[in-house]
Amino acid sequence: MKVARRANARRGAARVALVGGAVLVALAILVASRAAGLFDGTASVVIAVEPGQDGVSVPTMATGVNVAVWDNHLRDPGVPDLLRQAGVGVVRYPGGATADVYHWRTNTITPGQDGYVNPANNVAELLNHVVGPAGARLLITVNYGSNESGGGGGDPAEAAAWVYYANRLHHQDVRYWEIGNEVYGNGYYGRRWETDLHSNHSPEAYARNALAYIKAMKAVDPTIKVGLDLVVPGDWPDGLGPQRWNETVLAIAGHAADFVSLHWYAQQTGAASDARLLSAVAGVPAMMAQVRSLLTRYAGPRAAEMSILLTETNSAGYNAGQQTTSVVNGLFLIQDYLAWLQAGASLVAWWDLHNGPQTGGSVERGSDRPFGDLGLLSSGTGGEPEANTPFPAYTALTLLRHALGQPAVLTRCSASVAAVTAYALQQSDTRLSLVLVNTSPAQKYTVTPSVAGVSSITGATVSSFGVASPHLTTQRLSVTEGKVSYAMPPYSAVVLELIMPPGQMPLLPAPLTAPPGPTSATPGGAPSGPVTTATGTAQTSLPQQGSSPQPTAVATQGATRTSTATPTPTTSPTLSATPTSTATTTPSTIPTAAPSGTPTTTLTATPSGTPTSTATSTSSSTATASSTSTATPGVGTTVTPATTATPSPAVTTPAVPTGGHP
After folding, report:
1. In the chain, what are the domains?
2. Torsion angles phi and psi, residue 402, rounded to 5
């Protein structure tokens, strides 16, 4: 019995020891889980920053937005402040496909072509009451598609006269001019959504005509920058023949151009996916590397000086659904701007300021609105809230201003989990902004920055928005032992503004400056300053365009890309006003096949571009801006409208187009 009792005692002690050990292990796991943030549903993420590595200079004018002559709310008094608050530095005008049927002197649409122009939206009113007060610059797309009579293609003389009007007559110092909008959609490759009344629609014809435009425009002002229309590699119709668009255009006109213009819409209409959208920017470095390779191959010695501008972008190109008015589209906007800028683009311009309600696509979460809208601001029609109500994309752009509001260098940055995309912008040797996007719909992440070479963080501020908090909020963060952390909710974005001790981060390349604004010295030594009309001369009202907008072309957009990743360029030509010489020789050969070494891509024949739209003649959506607007006068210069045409009788103003990208 004693032996049995001793055996039982030993077994009992063993059980106690086993249970005690299990309890200790469980407690250890619990402590570790709590430390890692798993117990309360969060996970820890380290943001590793390496200042001075892979640095890409970002000018303050890198943030752009498109505006259109058909926008009935463009002249609303509050618009300049909204643009300024969002940090918009460049305004692209006169509005997508409308550019190829728009005539600036008469503020009208080409006879026989579809479109609508709000009579208050001529270039003089835009400069005086929108661009100037917003502190922005103007980028103009000149009419390549049609002449003023409607009997043929665009006239270089009309474009040259616009340069004279803006820069010589009114000293507005408009630096950037692009020739046509998405001209590759003119029917040469089978699909047509862009007006082109030239008899020859080939890329060769566009390139040779572009040379005439460049010559005429630079004869007026040799300091301007003139750009060519290219296709994003992998998008329709890249790679199609018989003449390949990008290679042909650059082989003929690349030596004379100053920049190239790209448009990128991340996904096909009707096939929207939040997860795919928030991973789409992974392909941006490869696309940019292919464009830079084309410039090197065809533009010769000037390739390194040429800028790459993304002049239109959004999640979808037309007929977009609820996703465009959801927080997810705002998160994508942040990724979109920073991915292209980090890859070397000099400008990213969102499509567009006001657009109108649309249906199509899909949404998985984040929007309770029964409509989509590609605009940053509401148009106030079709069940939308009051005009100029910000959508999440506008909130995201305003958040981005905290990082892009001053010259900076995008430097190497990575997150320890793939669901968090991270960008680092160094503004000085003591200031660094981290822009982080949590792309997970369910996971909360606690992020902790780790900056190479920096012993401690001395101050931190966080600005954020997301599904849980759709309005922008800013707060100070506590710093503990030189470190800072922040818990990011699912589907959210933050800008962490960090302060470090001096001398620990490398100095920035000198100096980072923005291009001169509208009030800078004008070409040819003409003095800048106010320009007024002659005494006794009233500003003539421009003619109204009476036809309702009826775009008829149907285009789907997007492409399936299978190209492999390519290293990101480490230098980025920035927007500047430095004149460059123009070569006089033109290559005579036209590439008809892919050059050796060109990455192959699988394409779906779906162009990025223009939707169908039908105007709704509703009296409630009549233009709210007029000649009696009380908007703040323009900066420096009062521009007089051109009055070369006889004003036509007044007509009822149609409603703003409710379709997408017109």
Report:
1. 42-53+409-499 (2.60.40.1180), 67-390+515-534+541-621 (3.20.20.80)
2. -65, -25
